[in-house]
Design brief:
Blueprint (H helix, E strand, L loop, with lengths): L1 H16 L4 H9 L2 E7 L8 H15 L4 E6 L10 H7 L4 E4 L23 H10 L2 H10 L3 E8 L6 E3 L13 E3 L2 H9 L3 E3 L6 H6 L5 E2 L4 H7 L7 E4 L8 E7 H5 L3 H35 L4 E4 L2 H18 L4 H34 L1
Parallel strand pairs: 1-2, 1-3, 6-7, 6-8, 9-11
Antiparallel strand pairs: 3-10, 4-10, 5-8, 5-9
Helix pairs in contact: 3-11, 5-6, 6-13, 7-12, 9-11
This protein binds calcium ion.
Length: about 350
């Protein structure tokens, strides 16, 4: 053991003397804080995965190289759904994912991703930063030695890819669909079977018939996964994910070791990525949808009104039930719901009224 350590040290020394570290290696050696970021996304996946890369690069640049972060895709250091635990125990200093993946830790976590028929991206960041959301989220993650930060949003997602038509509520019965979070619970109450799989497993699951349908994100990301090759019908709107927040999580002890300026840099970089990612989706989705329809012959369908009506009713029940699970979840639900009621009134006479007017003239 000692001999091996000696050889390793000697080897590193020889490399340094020979200047063999290269520019990146030298920067890494200079960094005051060398961090790992584990993610729930496939490595370099467009939008979600590249947002993690951009966040790491941004923190590196803003800190003048004092923080260097190496990003790991799902399965590289830990599997997708072990990101939360890995950052909690300090295997990695930072994680990148979405809070509904951690409902096994706390049901309340789901409010910090998205809620079926809930807040849009614009409203969600408003609740998070100005409506008390982040304080509650911080209180929750603190129990696990973590600090959460908003770090992106997908905007309204698509309903998903189905290998059969959905013409009535009956068609949801027995449907085996990959749909995480509260949307999955809604499908369950509609008679379907929700399953949760990390993104990297969706295509195969759908193609082999292990599942009948899957939602993922929207045209930009669904095109990248080639989901159109595995199912024909592409339904909208994504009632189940109207504005999904992407999270960064920090190991509390590691974050606490940073001086105040670096802490501010990490927080600011995450916040900047919230805008950055939403802009990327908003810009890329329309072109990707066009490609899916014209080149790949995706059959675009809107959910029938009576299906949406039923899903809306079930969603309200699911969210209300969730809000009664435990004392903490009740507190989060009360905050979210109050904000939702107010935001909805304002959005109806601002965004909604405007979009309707824009579209009707
Ligand atoms: Ca999704």
């Amino acid at each position: 053991m000692q001999r091996r350590d000696f050889i390793k040290r000697a080897g590193a020394g020889a490399l340094a003397v020979g200047g063999g570290l290269g520019v990146a290696g030298a920067a890494q050696a200079r960094a005051e804080h060398q961090w790992k970021m584990v993610t729930t996304w496939p490595k370099n996946f467009p939008g979600l995965g590249t947002a993690a890369n951009k966040l790491a690069a941004l923190i590196g640049d803003m800190s003048g190289g004092r923080i260097q972060i190496k990003v790991y895709g799902a399965g590289e250091l830990v599997p997708a759904f072990e990101v939360f635990d890995a950052v909690s125990r300090g295997t990695a200093e930072m994680g990148h994912g979405s809070a509904y993946y951690w409902k096994g830790k706390s049901e309340a976590a789901q409010f910090f991703s998205t809620v079926p028929f809930g807040l849009t991206a614009q409203e969600m960041i408003a609740w998070t930063l100005y409506g008390g959301g982040l304080e509650l989220w911080t209180e929750l993650y603190d129990q696990f030695g973590l600090i959460p930060m908003p770090a992106g949003n997908t905007g309204v997602q698509m309903g998903g890819w189905f290998n059969k038509e959905i013409n009535s509520v009956e068609d949801l019965k027995g449907l085996k669909m990959r749909i995480p979070g509260l949307g999955g619970e809604v499908l369950k109450r509609a008679g379907g079977t929700p399953v949760n799989l990390p993104g990297g497993e969706l295509f195969t699951a759908l193609q082999t018939g292990a599942i009948d349908a899957t939602e993922w994100v929207g045209p930009y990301n669904d095109l990248a996964f080639g989901l159109y090759k595995a199912a024909k019908y592409y339904y909208y709107p994504g009632f189940h994910e109207p504005g999904s927040l992407v999270e960064a999580m920090l190991n509390k002890a590691a974050f606490g070791q940073l001086p105040k300026d670096l802490q501010a840099i990490v927080r600011t970089a995450c916040k900047a990525m919230n805008q950055e990612l939403l802009a990327e989706y908003t810009a890329r989705n329309p072109l990707a949808l066009e490609t899916l329809i014209t080149e790949h012959k995706a059959d675009l369908r809107v959910y029938p009104q009576d299906v949406l009506k039923k899903l809306r009713k079930l969603s309200d029940e699911v969210v209300a039930d969730l809000g009664q699970k435990d004392a903490f979840t009740r507190k989060v639900y009360a905050s979210y719901n109050k904000f939702y009621q107010d935001a909805r009134k304002w959005s109806n006479i601002s965004e909604l009224a405007y979009l309707k007017a824009r579209d009707s003239i």
